[in-house]
Amino acid sequence: MDEELRAPPPTVLGRYVLGERLAAGSLGTVVAATDARTGRAVAVKFFDGASDNYGAWVDEMRLAVRLAHPHIAACIDAGHDDAWGLSVLVFARAMGGSLRRALASRRDLDPPALHRLLVEIAAALAHAHAHGIVHRDVKPENILALERLGEPPWALTDFGAGRFLPRGAALRSLAGSTGYIAPEVTLGAADASSDLYSLGVVAFELYTGDRGDLATRTEFRLRHCGHGEGLAALIACLLAPDPGDRFPSSAALVAALAAAPAGFDVARTLDGGAYLLAGDEVLRRCPETGRMRALGRVPRARRFIHEPDEDAVIVAGDRRVVCLDPRPTTLLASDESLAAFVASRRHAAIWLLQSGQVVRSDLAGECQRWRVELPMQWRAALDRDRRTPPVLTGLTISHDQALLGLPGCALLLLATRMANGLELAPLHAPAPLYALRRRGPELLIHCGDVGSASLLRLEAAGLRLLEHRSLPVDCVGVPAWPHAPQFTALVQTAGGDHV
Question: Is 136 known to be catalytic?
Fold first, then answer.
């Protein structure tokens, strides 16, 4: 603390008796204090670090006094102390200190405890985001244990870097803490989703014991994304470098956490709709309010299988495929469990894998089934963990043809319905499949691993390499618009990590 803050008088605003320093940052110093009138323990934030003391105080005060939530540190007083010559904010004191202090004390959080922390901080973010406020500096130092070290309840604090953000707008200024900043922040397009990424880094640090670098987090995502169950899959979703692959909103994250241990999935449609599958329930993000609106339920739902450039959301359950446009309509029902590749209303086709058979169904439920010998790479991947339903993907080419893939496997299958059966033509990618994309008439294969990414196009002669990057595969995106660059960077790299 500056010498000025060590000098008398020992009180602030005529009533708060100062104690030890709790924390210091770029905008100010936080000091423990006691309210002389009530005996209440408080924390006083002096704005002694900001170049514009008054402006920084006004900015944070406008945000802090607007937010009243059990998991946001409560601002109980504000003013300018003439004796100190500084503006201050007074908060209810968190007696357990910060999450960073708990980590330094080696207070480990087991999965149930981590789940509770995420529930409480997600609820705090949902409250802030509903008021148009983006925090911009979610990190362990700004998560407080309200009662005891390393134990709930937890609260989010320090909205000093926060900003009001009109719905649909993006922040262009850089703010946050190195290692926790979302990739899009460094590229000048931050919004409320950026807070979710930062929370994902915090969760990753608690889950693994180390914040890790970009490559480490990419490896984690490749192992867990798409599986839709458990904390690891949820953290992998939060850590998606592309905001469009994260939860649609903080309210959606709250819903997914509430549905746990049931699975979840996220998806988008051509009209910009953002969807969440939480357990059996399908929800859509309302663009006007940011709230999640229930569309319907799909028994034993697993994941979304519609193509993102179509306007209808389609869900695969354990034994059925359901379209929700606008009400749930069953497209396919079966007596046996199924695993779906893809469904398309445009091409009136659903492609499935069921009991060792490849199945193609039209949208009226009429099916053709072919028992085929799947490639050894596929069989090995599908047999690796029989307890977890396989994660399949695909793109329809026509009513009778589709490109089928298994994420993590470098072999794809071009499936064509013939007059005398089904033809499965193997296509070999240079690296494990990450995602299949459609860009206008082009079918693109995005593949790679922790060290590299490749983009290929499906052509009559097979797969043609369009671009290769020496970057983790999920750090580059594929623009959807025609004539776009082949890859677009999702992160700004510096020394192997985004800054």
Answer: yes
